[in-house]
Amino acid sequence: MARFTRSQLLAQALRTPLIPVFYHAEAAYAKDVLRACYEGGVRVYEYTNRGPEAFAIFSELQTFVEAEYPDLLLGAGTIYTPQDAERFIEAGADFIVSPVISAEVAAVCKRHDLAWLPGAQTLNEIYQAIQLGADLVKIFPASHLGPAYIKTLRGPLPHVPLLVSGGVQPQDLADWFGAGASCVSIGSQLLPADGPGGLSARVAELLRQIEKARA
Description:
Layout: H1 6-15, E1 18-22, H2 27-40, E2 44-48, H3 54-68, E3 73-77, H4 82-90, E4 95-98, H5 103-111, E5 115-120, H6 123-131, E6 137-139, H7 142-145, H8 147-153, E7 162-164, H9 173-179, E8 183-186, H10 199-214
Parallel strand pairs: 1-2, 1-8, 2-3, 4-5, 5-6, 6-7, 7-8
Helix pairs in contact: 2-10, 4-5, 8-9, 9-10
């Protein structure tokens, strides 16, 4: 049984709307990054299924989170198939992120009352995702589309929760939230060049910037 319901994921994502997206093939380093993000204020975190070690490391991270940070929602990203969705949910995933819209993955998440965050771009794709039960729609690649695109979407879609992802730069957060983003995902751009040592302070500062932009 999932630790968090779909509605709990959405509520937490809107409270702490910076969602790191991360993959690393070494569990110890992955834990260091997750720990630093948590200490900075992150409460929703995506670990991506992008390498042969991903499932084993995700399983280890989930055990670590449940023991050390039980209020953190740890999700599995880059999930294309219902088989992978079932596998990561069985390992404890608190939500599932898909790069594409898959009715089969949506059905798996619905059956488990687990949040599903599919990728989309166009108005039709966003509408389709919502009809299939998306809790947050991931607008990807955001850097290619730009904040003005989010502002345009907010005309016909004023209430749909939108997560911007893909090439989002930390210095542009005010523009994204000013345009109507509900949440942002940041990957490699979040991690300082010297590793996770200064990550907690960086995350805390970005969350302060987001709070100011949403005020």
